[in-house]
What does this fold into?
Amino acid sequence: MNNTILFVTHRKKQCGVYEFGINTYNAIKTSAKYKFIHVECESLNELKAAVSGHTPGVIIYNYHPSVMPWLCTKVSKGLYRNNISSVSAIQVGIIHEVTQEVADTATDYMNHFVLGGSSKKLNSLFNFYIASDPTLLLKNPFVYKTGRLIPEYTKPAVHPEIMTIGSFGFATPNKGFEYLVEKVKSEFDQAVIRLNMPFATYGDADGANAKKVAEHCRQMLNGTKIKLEISHEFLNNEQVLDFLAGNSMNVFMYQEKSGRGISSAVDFALAVKKPIALSDCPMFRHVLKSNPEVCCDKDSLKNIFSRGFQPLEKTIAGWDAANLKWEFERIVHSIIINKTNFFEAPKLGIKRTIQAKINKILTKPGRAFTWLGNTKAATDDNLNRDEKASYHPLMLSETDGFNRILDDKARALYAPAINKLIEFAPATMAKKIAEANVQQAFIFDTVYRHLKNYSNPKLLCVGSYEDTASMGLQKLGYTVEEIDPMINYFLQDYITKPTTLKNTYDIVFSTSVIEHDPDDKSFLECIEQLLAPGGLAVITCDYKDGWKPGQPKPEVDARFYTKNDMEQRMLSYIPQCELVDKGEWDCPKPDFYYLGKYNYTFATFTVRKKK
It folds into this structure.
């Protein structure tokens, strides 16, 4: 395997895209798994020379059409392929202006061949894509995502005597500097506004627009005691951080409402950990859901400032250089594996739909599987804590154990929990298969009733995409860490993340996920490693006793579970864990029908890690 990775940027200019690229490269260049090499290219000939000199296995482009206009489909495809069976470097593009729609529709060059399409329809620059947008749902197998890169800043905090509000960025349309000035003017009789508006190489090279905006801001403050300080110097990373750290708070009031990528300016503001206020702009979507909110369209600057940086602490956890390097290493590894599968498919005469690729080519469970009727991302459910929300665990009898079959009898028993989840998350529950909701209800009730056994319990939901048990616990005020291949990681990836702390989780729960994992041994081993001594794992799965490989099952399932699996095989993988009670998994007449042709039931597997 060729471990040389070419990281291509344009030549250095006063440009946010360049700064993003070089900061990313500096974070990943220390990788011990791959040799990342940075090259600056302004033409096809320069790219050819770089490729000839380094013969990379993968090329990652820090791409934006405004900075690499010479890179087009013909160039990126024709440079490395003479025909379908002759493939050199894998082409990977970093998407800057990414939205969910852009990510969902990004296509692969090979897609047209795999699906039998015409080469005349080629419209994609790259084989795979990387987006630095933590909010994306990973529904497209050709698109990967990372967290943000928050620069490290260790200098002592500066606290100005007079309220000082800062902001920076190129004075491109919709940056909202005037709105910021108006907001400060409406709330403060005396304050200092500090703005850094450098001239942009692309779009405002002579600084005409920056000067125009600056003059307008000055005129707005005539006759007030608010002092305005404006600079047009292009600051390097350290200077930007010092500038932001010197303010009482930093405010960004972009007015952009159309589909755009995430703003990198906020990354620098997050680094200095001063209070941040943001407009309700999609470019801030990765931080706007903090609790309490930091949106100055909904609250005053004074209130946001009074809460300090605390609302954003959880949001930025893991957005550092070490984790970004880990993200790129696992993405490159996955890309190399998937490239082999994608490029071998045409030779074998295989034609697959995108969904089939997701389910069959990827080495982990299908990303798009869910118990929902559809996988639409948006819901009307609000996961913020509800002070009025409450729940009382069910009254269970001595025969109602935690290792059992979830059949019609269980559905009747857990009906109150199902109804509570409908109350907490009505939009999501409405999209689920009603007969399968007993699993979520069991998980929700079982986790909740055991919370009293732990002080400040640390919870992890495995397979959290629209998991209503997790939603219900959050409505009750509990913090739940969530992982899911649709929103961030597979469990086997998460266990290797630099910031993952093993032996620390009090409860790990997972609803109907394990049967989709081709490697349930590693799935269980990961859970055992994550659990703290005395910690609880609560799992549900698709169950049909007596089932054997090769017999009918839903395509999305890797297997059905049997009584022997529950009593012996699964426990053999996790010797540090034991069943919390005797299993009752007899089910001669399964009562669940999926797609009208698969007859099975659901079962629970609840274990505790030995102390």
